[in-house]
C-alpha cells in the first residue's frame, strides 16, 4: 500500500522491542535459558532499554547461575557490592563449554621431540606462549606453543627453543619463571636461573643441602621448599640466600605466595601460612588423612590437591585458614596439551 502521503510507517524494530518489553520477566528468563551469557549481554540487552535494565540486574545473573549450578557459588562469601555476577556467569559458562566437549572446543597438541624419560615438571611462561618441561634424564625442553601445529608433525622440530641436559645433574622437579628467566629446582640440590633471552644460558645458581621440591618466585625475593624440611628464601637477582627456616616436620612438597604471605604444604600433612612481613608462622592446618602435593590460589580461595586425588578448598582471607569443603577423587592432574581454539 502506498503510504507516501500518510503518516510514516512504524519501524519494525521498534515493534519488536515493544513486544519484548511487554513480556513478563519469567518468560524472558526462560527465553534467555536457550542463549549463552555472551549473546544475552552483547546482543539481547541492546535490543531495548527495558531489556537492558532487566539484564543488567544482579538478580538475573544470580538466578541463571543457581539454576545451572545449584551448588553454593561462590564457594567462599564475597562482597556482594563489588562482585561482578554478569562477568562471573559469562566466564563460568565459557569454561564449562570448553571442558565439557574436548573434541569441539579444544585443540590437542602433542610434543615428543627430545623427550625420552618421564616428565616431572611443566611450566607455562611468557603469556602462555612458551612451555618448559623437565624430565628425569635431566633434560630441560622449552618450546613455543604458537609454532606447534596439531596437523603438522614436522612443527615439533621447529618449535624448540631449548633442549639441554647441562643445567642440572639430577631430576628436574619444579619450575617457575620471572619474565624471560626460567627458574628450575632439582634433586641435585640446586636452583638454576636460565635466561631464555640469552639463548638459554644459566645466569645464576643457588646451592642448598637437599633436593629442591617446589618453588615460588618474585622479582625481588623467591622461595624454595626442600626434601630436608626447609623453606629457603633467596634473592633471584644475586642468588644469595636470605633465610632458612624449618617449620614442617616432613619434606616441603608445594608452595604458593602473595605479597604478604607464603603458603606451604608438606608430607607431614600440614599446610602453613607464613606471614612474610612479620616473619613468623601465622596459621597451621593439618589434613586428616592425606598430604598436600599441589596448590593454587584465586583471591581468598586456596585449592589444595592431595596425594590421594582429592581437592580441598580453604578460605584464606585476612591471613587465616578455614576449611570449606573437599571434592573426592578429582584426579589432580596438570593438563598442558590443550588450548582454546
TrEMBL record:
Q: Which InterPro entries match?
A: F-box-like_dom_sf, F-box_dom, WD40/YVTN_repeat-like_dom_sf, WD40_repeat_dom_sf, WD40_rpt
| PROSITE patterns linked to this entry | FBOX
Coiled-coil parts of chain: none
Q: Where is the F-box domain?
A: 17-64
Transmembrane feature ranges = none
PANTHER family listed in its UniProt record: F-BOX_WD REPEAT-CONTAINING PROTEIN 9, WD40 REPEAT PROTEIN 12, 37
The name this protein goes by in its record: F-box domain-containing protein
Source organism: Capitella teleta (Polychaete worm)
Amino acid at each position: 500500500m502506498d503510504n507516501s502521503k500518510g503518516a510514516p510507517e512504524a519501524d519494525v524494530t521498534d515493534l519488536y522491542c515493544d513486544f519484548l518489553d511487554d513480556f513478563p520477566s519469567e518468560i524472558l528468563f526462560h527465553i534467555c535459558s536457550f542463549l549463552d551469557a555472551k549473546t544475552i549481554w552483547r546482543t539481547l540487552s541492546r535490543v531495548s532499554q527495558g531489556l537492558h535494565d532487566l539484564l543488567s540486574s544482579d538478580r538475573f545473573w544470580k538466578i541463571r547461575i543457581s539454576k545451572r549450578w545449584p551448588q553454593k557459588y561462590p564457594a567462599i562469601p564475597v562482597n556482594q557490592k563489588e562482585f561482578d555476577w554478569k562477568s562471573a556467569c559469562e566466564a563460568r559458562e565459557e569454561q564449562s563449554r570448553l571442558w565439557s566437549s574436548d573434541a569441539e572446543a579444544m585443540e590437542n597438541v602433542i610434543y615428543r621431540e627430545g623427550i625420552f624419560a618421564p616428565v616431572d615438571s611443566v611450566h607455562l611462561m611468557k603469556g602462555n606462549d612458551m612451555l618448559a618441561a623437565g624430565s628425569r634424564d635431566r633434560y630441560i625442553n622449552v618450546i613455543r606453543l604458537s609454532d606447534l601445529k596439531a596437523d603438522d608433525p614436522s612443527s615439533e622440530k621447529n618449535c624448540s627453543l631449548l633442549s639441554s641436559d647441562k643445567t642440572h645433574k639430577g631430576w628436574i622437579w619444579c619450575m617457575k619463571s620471572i619474565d624471560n628467566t626460567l627458574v628450575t629446582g632439582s634433586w641435585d640440590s640446586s636452583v638454576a636461573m636460565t635466561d631464555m633471552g640469552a639463548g638459554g644460558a644459566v645466569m645464576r645458581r643457588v646451592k642448598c643441602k637437599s633436593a629442591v621440591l617446589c618453588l615460588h618466585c618474585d622479582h625481588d625475593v623467591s622461595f624454595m621448599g626442600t626434601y630436608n624440611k626447609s623453606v629457603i628464601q633467596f634473592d633471584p637477582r644475586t642468588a644469595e640466600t636470605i633465610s632458612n627456616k624449618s617449620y614442617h616436620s616432613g619434606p616441603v612438597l608445594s608452595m604458593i605466595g602473595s605479597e604478604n604471605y607464603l603458603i606451604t604444604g608438606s608430607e607431614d600433612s600440614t599446610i602453613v601460612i607464613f606471614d612474610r612481613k612479620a616473619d613468623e608462622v601465622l596459621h597451621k592446618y593439618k589434613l586428616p588423612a592425606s598430604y598436600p602435593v599441589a596448590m593454587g590460589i584465586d583471591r581468598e580461595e586456596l585449592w589444595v590437591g592431595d596425594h590421594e586425588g582429592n581437592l580441598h578448598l580453604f578460605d584464606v582471607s585476612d591471613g587465616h585458614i578455614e576449611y570449606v569443603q573437599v571434592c573426592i577423587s578429582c584426579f589432580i592432574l596438570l593438563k598442558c596439551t590443550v588450548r582454546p581454539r
